[in-house]
Design a protein that fits this description.
Length: about 110
């Protein structure tokens, strides 16, 4: 037993069981279903055989599918775009507030 003291087995997909079908959150399914319903409604109302117009009518469903598509290292494209937006619009200067900082002598605090 001595060699097994620090060997833990943690599955890589522990959060996957909390997702719908292992991939989707309720928000993802809402985005996907709204995009598909809007596309379907537009196609039924327009009733066209014109290919460029048909592609335009399919755009809400295609964009919704693109947003909920899984990507490596992120949950899906929507989360990746949200993280990129937060990175570029968030604070750019970070102040050290670690355990070894004395607040009285910190020159970076305002």
């Amino acid at each position: 037993m001595e060699g097994r003291s620090n060997s833990y087995l943690i599955p890589a997909n522990t959060k996957k069981s909390q997702l719908i079908l292992g991939f989707f959150t309720p928000v993802d399914l809402a985005i996907f279903s709204v995009g598909c319903v809007v596309s379907f409604t537009l196609i039924v109302l327009q009733n066209t055989v014109n290919l460029p117009l048909l592609i335009i009518l399919l755009m809400p469903g295609l964009v919704a599918t693109f947003l909920v598509m899984p990507v490596p290292h992120y949950h899906n494209v929507l989360q990746l775009l949200t993280n990129i937006y937060n990175f570029y619009t968030g604070r750019r200067q970070y102040y050290w507030k670690g355990w070894c900082v004395n607040e009285k002598y910190n020159t970076n605090s305002k």
